[in-house]
Amino acid sequence: MRSAALLAAAAALLAGQAHAQPIRASYEVYAGGVAILQLEAEFDVTAAGYRLMTIARTRGIAAAFVPGQQAARVVGEWVGMAARPVAYGSDGVWRGRVRRTVLDWPAGDPVVVDLQPVEDEPRDEVPADLRRGSIDGLSALAQMSRLVARVGHCDGEAQVFDGRRRSDYASRTVGREVILPWREAWHGAALRCAFEGRLVAGFRRDQRQADSTPQRGTAWVASPFAGAPPIPVRVEVPSRWFGQAIAVMLRAEFSTSPVQGQHTR
Q1: Which of 53-57, 204-208, 218-222, 239-243 has the lowest mean pLDDT?
Q2: Is residue 264 part of a domain?
Q3: Is 244 part of a structural domain of the chain?
Q4: What is the distance between the alpha carbons of residues 16 and 244, in angstroms, rounded to a whole number?
């Protein structure tokens, strides 16, 4: 579920701070005013490295049409301002099909350890030169968020490989806005960031034109409570099945324990 992965990735925006206490946040995703997805995120980020985990589950009408859930986790380190993932794992079931991705970076470049199903859809292979230097989506958004915490803007780029596709992501600062009260969602002043994902390799062979269309979205980043680092409090992205999807943060709190596990084997 590409839109769920994008939402999960956007929800992993977290500013790295020295000795920061892990954060746990809960989100709900709406399309057409109806809740379609629940998202839980945990972040453990320090000056030296990061561990992130997200769990997404469809709900309501979405669960009837696209039943599924997905858990993703990554562990990595910082090299200057750049994120360097060490290991990434994602496990889930969508429409009754097991989906699993395990990536390692033994020499700084991604290696596919496990990928299920092996051939999801007929796709072009991602050349080795386009994989080189790429990172996973969770690390890319964590990297951008670290920039927000340190310099106050979200202008950045990342090359992302998910085991099947290679995309270029870019984000830019739009400005500061006040998010108005809406249902039980968080509200207040936040930094507005526009982002775009463009597929550059791993196209579906029968839908190349559709895959080449840029995926654009917006994230609002803020500290959800006193002493917390800035994390996404609202995200808007296009959904493959339900049109425009809006993820809103319901609550956030310090976690009593760091993210568990490195990646799935």
Answers
A1: 239-243
A2: no
A3: yes
A4: 30
- Collapse the DSSP code of 24 into the 3-class scheme (helix H, G, I; strand E, B; otherwise coil) and give the result: strand
Report yes or no on 122 lying in a domain: yes
Residue range of the domain that includes 172: 2-254
Distance CA(79)–CA(76), nearest Å, equals 10
CB 216 within 8 A of CB 238: yes
Give the H or E element holding residue 139: helix 137-151
Quick one: pLDDT band at residue 259, thresholds 50, 70, 90? very low
CATH number at residue 59: 2.40.360
Query: Is residue 210 a part of any domain in this protein?
Result: yes
Sequence-distant (6+) residues with CB within 8 A of 168 are: 157, 158, 159, 160, 197, 198, 200
Give percent of the chain with pLDDT exceeding 70: 88
Q: Where are the beta strands (DSSP E) in 106-230?
A: 111-116, 156-161, 166-179, 188-201, 215-222
For residue range 236-257, what is the model confidence (pLDDT) as tens digits? 998 766 678 999 999 999 987 6
- Tokens representing 116 are 């299920």
Residue 62 structure tokens: 């979405």
Closest by CA position to 231, among listed 185, 190, 195, 175 = 190
Closest CA to 105 of 90, 81, 89, 84: 84
Give the chain's domain count.
Answer: 1
- What pLDDT does residue 20 have? 61
Q: pLDDT for 38-51, tens place per residue?
A: 999 998 888 889 89
